[in-house]
Design a protein that fits this description.
Blueprint: E1 2-5, H1 12-20, E2 25-28, H2 42-54, E3 58-63, H3 69-73, H4 78-94, E4 99-103, E5 114-118, E6 124-129, H5 146-167, E7 170-174, H6 193-202, E8 208-213, H7 214-219, H8 224-232, E9 237-242, E10 245-248, E11 251-254, H9 264-273, E12 279-282, H10 300-320
Parallel strand pairs: 1-2, 1-12, 2-3, 3-4, 4-7, 7-8, 8-9, 9-12
Antiparallel strand pairs: 5-6, 6-11, 10-11
Length: about 325
Amino acid sequence: MRIGVVLPEITESYLKLARQIGCTDIVTTLRGPAGGEPVWGFRDLLIQRQRIEEAGLTWSVIESLPMPDCIKLGLDGRDEAIERYIASVRNIGAAGIPIMCYNWMAVLPWLRTSYTTRVRGDALATSYKHALMERAPLTWAGQVQEEQLWSALAYFLQAVVPVAQEAGVRLAIHPDDPPVSPIAGIGRILTHPDAFQRVIDLVPSPSSGITFCQGCFAEMGADIPATIERFGRQDRMFFAHFRNVRGTARDFSEAFHDDGDTDMFAAMQAYYRIGFQGPMRPDHVPALEGEPNDRPGYSLWGRFYAIGYMRGLMEAVEKTGY
């Protein structure tokens, strides 16, 4: 198992910090102007990968390549957009980056109703209360049914998975966050563990799997160790977000990794039981006193605290068994 981290920037200073706290992997997107291009260029990807590797780390996950809503909704223009996406996937594979995390949240991405919920010691965390969103107006897309999203996802996977397999890239789909459907009229389909089995079965391939976002699965009410084993035994869990929450999908708050509802030691034992060898990064942490809450869920000190906790759990599991 390898610990990864998302850094505020890809700089020498941050890369050194990542190594100093015991990380081996970097999870990032293509930074700079090239990251806004319709097709990510091979050379741009290679230069960033080399910068990371020359600092003694591995760029193992892209999170994520932008995907226009016309693909997720199956609208006009999706074929051209998919061709551009495929071109990027080929370049990502050629540049030697093995995993790409993506999601199927159309129109409304990662969503919260508060970025300033007080948790332990008045640290600031993100939270979601569905009751506050129930009267939200429709978006430009109007009502979007779940089957429309499933149909569009199947179309996308049929086009992209064979290319990804040829290119040596593993596609790891992320749960809807929050896993509630609908929100503001927009259906969401990745809201239950069985939905991920459906994704895996749509286009069976060693290159089609999941990002196991532990917090999202906990919000779904899933048995976390059992679900880790379910997908890990199929070798379809490519990447993991280690995360803890309090509450359920319709009303939850992020928490410190050692202060939520999930038994994180039991979760770590499950990763060891399945022999998980992929990268795992801490996800969504509270902002601690003394640092700005300008990137809610991604404060640097909170992530460093989480990584120390993760390393402690890993040592405990290794020494006591699983």
